[in-house]
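Budget justification aside, the reviewers requested a transparent look at the raw inputs and outputs of the sequence design task funded under Objective 1. We therefore reproduce one unedited record. The lines immediately below are the structure tokens for a 307-residue chain.
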């Protein structure tokens, strides 16, 4: 019986070895997969794993401040990891990753423009796209990043980052979209300044009840005087806004006919009437309105509430 049992055991062991040998091994990691691991990896050391030995030593010494691109790359990877719920990654195809924000109203894509593999070296060129409400947004510049990867002990390492910025000055649609984007930023600044004026008016009337609201921007400012708040300079807004001109807009306050003034009207109109930017206005109700024609009178008489 013993020889028979021994033969059976040897046969079973041989079958087990055959099955173990038959298990397919995963293919080696590609340079693109390594780059994705650097950008989105959650495991400790995922980013540092794909840095060269010299770069890791520089990071340990705190010398990374000499490489703002590397710093930005590291910070970007941390941000992606923090928003991984809305992140999609692609190991092949024209996209490297895609991320949505604000319930899908905004989307960021990183596209693969070029992936040149040559032996143990690979160059991956990426571009950035931003969408708002499904529409491609024009960027002030069109960035291109090229990641040069090299294999070191069978691990892909980031060897070099090349940053290129393209400004298509001859593209009329790009310039039109850029102007629209800049106008939007200036409009947002004007709305913020009007809200500041509303808050300042309330504080001014509470501090100087004998005067009530003021129609002089200079009386809401006064930080450069160096003395304490007074009715002539309440130190409630910055000197730029108190001058009446800020970020492409001209500000004014009116309607303070009697003292103590219980009403006022504040307006913000584009410094360039041909800019196509809207006018904004408000009053003691603190409700903000706008006029598409850029005129203060239109805003005060028939302005639409700002959402």
């Amino acid at each position: 019986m013993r020889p028979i049992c021994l033969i059976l055991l040897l046969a079973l062991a041989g079958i087990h070895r055959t099955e173990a040998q038959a298990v397919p091994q995963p293919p080696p990691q590609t340079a693109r997969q390594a780059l994705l691991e650097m950008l989105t990896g959650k495991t400790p050391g995922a980013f540092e794993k794909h840095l060269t030995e010299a770069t890791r030593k520089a990071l340990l010494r705190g010398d990374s401040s000499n490489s703002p691109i590397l710093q930005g790359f590291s910070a970007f990877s941390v941000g992606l990891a923090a928003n991984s719920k809305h992140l999609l990654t692609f190991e092949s195809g024209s996209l490297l990753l895609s991320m949505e924000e604000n319930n899908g109203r905004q989307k960021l894509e990183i596209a693969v423009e070029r992936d040149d593999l040559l032996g143990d070296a690979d160059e991956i060129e990426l571009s950035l796209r931003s969408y708002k409400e499904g529409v491609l947004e024009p960027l002030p510049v069109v960035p291109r990043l090229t990641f040069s990867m090299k294999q070191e002990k069978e691990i892909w390492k980031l060897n070099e980052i090349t940053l290129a910025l393209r400004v298509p000055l001859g593209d009329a649609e790009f310039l039109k979209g850029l102007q629209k984007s800049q106008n939007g930023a200036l409009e947002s600044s004007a709305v913020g300044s009007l809200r500041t004026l509303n808050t300042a008016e309330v504080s001014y009337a509470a501090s100087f009840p004998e005067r009530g609201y003021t129609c002089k921007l200079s009386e809401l400012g006064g930080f450069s005087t160096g003395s304490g708040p007074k009715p002539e300079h309440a130190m409630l807004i910055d000197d730029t806004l108190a001058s009446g001109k800020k970020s492409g807009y001209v500000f004014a306050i009116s309607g303070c006919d009697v003292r103590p003034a219980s009403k006022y009207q504040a307006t913000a109109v584009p410094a360039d009437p041909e800019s196509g930017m809207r006018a904004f206005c408000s009053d003691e109700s603190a409700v903000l309105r706008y006029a598409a024609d850029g005129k203060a009178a239109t805003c005060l008489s028939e302005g639409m509430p700002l959402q």
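The longest helix spans residues 172-207. The chain has two domains: 31-167, 173-305. Computational costs for records of this kind are itemized in the attached budget.
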